[in-house]
Amino acid sequence: MLKGKFVAHVLLSVFLIMVTVLSGCANKDSTKGTKESAVPASPIATAAVETAKPLEPVVLTYYYPGVVQKDVQEVNDAMNVILKKKINATIKLVTIDFGNYDQKMNVLNAAGESYDLAFTANWINNYYQNVSKGNFIAIDDLLSKYAPKLKASIPDSVWQASKINGKTYGAINLQIYAMPYGYVVRKDLLDKYKFDINSVNKAEDLEPLMKQIKEKEQGITPLAVDAIYSWLPLMFGYEGIGDTKLPGVVKLENPDYKVINQYESPEFTNYVKLMKKWNDAGYFNKDAISVKDIRPDFKAGKYAIFLGQGVKPGVEAENKAFYGQDLVSKTTTKAYVTTGGIVATMTGVSKTSKNPERAMMYLELINTDKELYNLISHGIEGKHYKVVDKEKGVIGTPDGMDPKQIGYNPSTDWMFGNQFNSYYLDAASVGNWEKTAKLNATGIVSPILGFNFDAAPINTESAQVNAVIGEMASALITGTIDPDKYLPIFHEKLKKAGVDKIIAEKQKQLDAWKKTK
After folding, report:
1. What is the pLDDT of residue 494?
2. Which segments in the chain show pLDDT lower than 50?
3. What pLDDT does residue 99 have?
4. Pick from 132, 112, 111: nearest CA to 120
5. N or C: fewer beta carbons within 10 Å in the chain?
6. What is the DSSP string of 341-375?
7. CA–CA separation, 139 and 145 (whole Å)
């Protein structure tokens, strides 16, 4: 296990930097602090001194996943007023729905199409695969020169967790790293059936409630299931190495540093059998295998329960703002500080970018300029939200409006930059950034924190194995096919596609990394 000075350094570093950032938030300017004089006042000032002439105007293109918002262009235009003034740039926001984001980015990268910035993570638009294929540029020098405040806001120990072969390929969003997971249920149905959410410690504990909803609630399906989020190794005590879908995980508790194929684990077998049982019982949507994002239908009131949502401080306020209904969350996992949690929300700079320096200036601003950040996160004051408490930074739904009808409400502020610069969504959420900092500081440190997998040696096998996963995993985790019959076929196809080489390469790199600790 990671012990002694390293663990203490990680936790202390995370805690101290969270406190620093939170203090900045309390002062209504997160860019002010003891290090103010040590960094340039703005990235454009640095560039102007170096070039001895004004910056030429440029347009930056930014791809990210989400629910396309009706008023996104209006928000985009408002952002460009700020960007034009501060870095003489404009940005083009391109939202791709979650279900199609991977495919869209794969096509863009394969075609060599020019763009500047893209959301990347270990769970979507895979960070490790992008790096191994050369889709992103290393940003270490750019960070130091054009985004010094962004760089300083995150501890070196956290930056280390994102490095591959010693280089940084993505800007980390400061947010919750020690994310516990659990279940989310509509409060009105919990109250109606007098169901105690605290009695839920595993998925099977929800069966009595789902049975009542199935029998008594016309038009409401008990469980929301899609082909994207239905299997989460962290829910079962494993941390994925690299791509969360690719085989190769280690145990978080009592680690032996042995890399295993999660699709051969007893937890996966039990899960897919449970999902088949629930599918047969009619507890979730029969079209789950073809649904790439269940959230719009959940928002429309068609479902009662989510499985495997991150349960962080303030999640219930975020859920209500997005879904327009009261949802109750129950944590069933411990809060682990993991490499996966750190690389779960990042922005990469494309190798095709014609203006990587300006792209980095944008990342500096979106992480330090609260007005710009809250524009992309929450929209325009008076139209998309109202200020409820200016002093405490609390916003709410504009008077007379239904949250479901607001033209800009992406509810993904964690995706865009430093989330500690975000408004609170209700008065009850005030103080959640301090709670988040505490959770980050006290979370259980993963035994492989800081280990980052270089996927380049197995690019061929990864493509082949991911094809098999795409063909069969969704059908298994949505209960569409019988696991007794098809799970052995799935395992055999993974073998033929090269899964053993992937596991061996991950084990080799992990063993080498462990020797350095």
Report:
1. 98
2. 1-39, 48-49, 51
3. 86
4. 132
5. N
6. HHTTSEEEEBTT-S-HHHHHHHHHHHHH-HHHHHH
7. 10
What is the C-alpha to C-alpha distance for residues 123 and 419, in angstroms, rounded to an integer?
19
Q: For residues 301 and 278, give the distance between their C-alpha atoms in angstroms, rounded to a whole number.
A: 20
- pLDDT number for residue 243: 82
Q: Which residues contact 39 (CB under 8 A, 6 or more apart)?
A: 148, 149, 152
At residue 228, the pLDDT reads 67
Nearest to 159 by CA among 179, 139, 178, 145: 139
**295 burial level (CB within 10 Å; 0-12, 13-18, 19+):** buried
Residues 6+ apart with CB under 8 A from 233: 239, 240, 244, 249, 262, 267
- Overall size of the chain counted in residues: 517
Measured over the CA atoms of residue 222, residue 226, residue 249 and residue 486, the dihedral's sign is: positive
- Three-state SS string across 432-498, please? HHHHHHHHHHHCEECCCCCCCCCCHHHHHHHHHHHHHHHHHHHHHHCCCCCHHHHHHHHHHHHHHHC
DSSP for residue 381: B
pLDDT value for 427: 93
Find the helix packing angle between 4-26 and 432-442, rounded to 10°: 170
Six-digit token pair at 405? Answer: 């009808």
Q: Angle formed by the axes of helices 72-87 and 370-378, to 10°?
A: 160
Angstrom distance (rounded) from CA 56 to CA 359 = 13
H helices, E strands: number in the chain: 21, 15
Q: What local confidence, expressed as pLDDT, does residue 310 receive?
A: 87
Residues 189 and 196: their CA atoms lie apart, in Å, by: 11
> CA-CA distance, 356 to 429, in Å (whole number)?
37
- Which amino acid, 134? G
Query: Do the beta carbons of residue 118 and residue 347 sit within 8 Å?
Result: yes
- Per residue in 81-115, pLDDT (tens digit) is 999 999 999 999 999 999 899 999 999 999 999 99
CA angle 135, 139, 145 (to 5 degrees): 150
